[in-house]
Amino acid sequence: MKRLLLALALLATPVLADSDLPPAPLADMQLPDPRQEAEAKALMATIRCLVCQGQSIADSDAELAGDMRAMVRERIAAGEKPEAIRAWLVQRYGSWVSYNPPFNRVTWLLWMAPVGFVLIGVLIARSSFRRRA
Amino acid sequence: MTGAKKWAPLVLFILLGSALTYGLAKPESSTIKSKMIGVSVPSFTLPAAIPERPGLSSADLATGQPHLVNVFGSWCIPCMAEAPQLKQIADAGVPIVGIAVRDKPENLQRFLARYGNPFRAIGADDASQVMMALGSSGVPESFVVDGQGRILHQQIGPINPEDVAGIVAAVKGAR
User: Fold this and answer.
1) How many cross-chain Cβ pairs, A to B, lie less than 8 Å apart?
2) Considering chain A, what is the average pLDDT of its residues?
3) Chain B interface test: which of A16, A18, A20, A123 (most B C-beta within 10 Å)
4) CB atoms closer than 10 angstroms to residue A54
5) Given an 8 Å threshold on Cβ–Cβ distance, is B132 in contact with A68?
6) Rounded to whole angstroms, how far apart are CA atoms B164 and B153?
């Protein structure tokens, strides 16, 4: 039984689809300036990983996410503004890549729906309270 | 409150909940198309990935001749699968240049010796920076670039045998 399990475990070894190179230095190393590091961290938390698409690049363990974190830190260290880096990525991958969707023709419903739901709730509450009173 | 009116909010809630859950579980598509199509290749310079071939820069893509730019890696399994198709495309007279993502020269040399080397130049993109600049999100991907360095077409994933004719036509049709 044990031997069978071991054989199965060997079979289940995932196909290696990662490269041989170590992560870029800045992928997992903080910037020396804490203010810059905080800026970079805040941006990374709102950029979507292109590989693990439900995760931010701050959370994702994908190699590309590491390279994206390194890119963010390098640019912040060079004095670039976080919103400029976000814009650079959006220009390449679309607003999909940002977890901070802009308000525009496509996303207005997303932003306005909560307001609409609160209004509907207020109307329902008002009519039911009035009836009870 | 009676009948339909009483249940309307719950029904609405369930409908909305199912629609949102469906959207989350089954997104439109998980491939990310580059928004750089129709735009010039961003400026870049990559060192040679192997000594046998020169490196690659954006200037090499604006010499008046259209190219196929293949983003690949020796560690990438679908890249092995597309190698015969790349050879066919090169044999049809299309200049192919490569961007090797996160690769080591010795691994790359072994890969090219085994699967063929259709590349005129191979740039080493050790931290995926040029891959990101092109709006590419994985390997393999290929871009048809015209003689002025403008991106005309993106192939996401390996080039399959049925894609060969279209890609050759796209490069030959470009200026």
Assistant:
1) 68
2) 87
3) A20
4) 10
5) yes
6) 13
**Length of chain B counted residue by residue:** 175
| HEC string for B119-156 | EEEEEEECCCHHHHHCCCCCCCEEEEECCCCEEEEEEE
Amino acid at B76: C
User: From CA A51, how far away is CA A57, in angstroms rounded?
Assistant: 9
Residues of A in contact with B133 (CB under 8 A): 92
What token pair was written down for A63? 């190699």
Which tokens belong to B172? 């030959």
Question: In chain A, which residue's Cα lies nearest the Cα of B37?
Answer: A92
Given a cut of 80, whether residue A85 has pLDDT beyond it is: yes
Least CA distance to B131: which residue of chain A?
A64
CA atoms of A128 and B10, how far apart (whole Å):
15
- The pLDDT value recorded for residue B80 is 94
Q: What is the pLDDT of residues B129-164, one digit of tens each?
A: 999 999 999 999 999 999 999 999 999 999 999 999
CA nearest to B87, candidates B105, B79, B130: B79
Q: What tens digit of pLDDT does each residue of B9-25 get?
A: 899 999 999 998 888 77
d(CA A54, CA A74): 24
ipTM of the complex: 0.84
- Interval A40-75: pLDDT, tens: 999 999 999 998 888 999 999 999 999 999 999 999
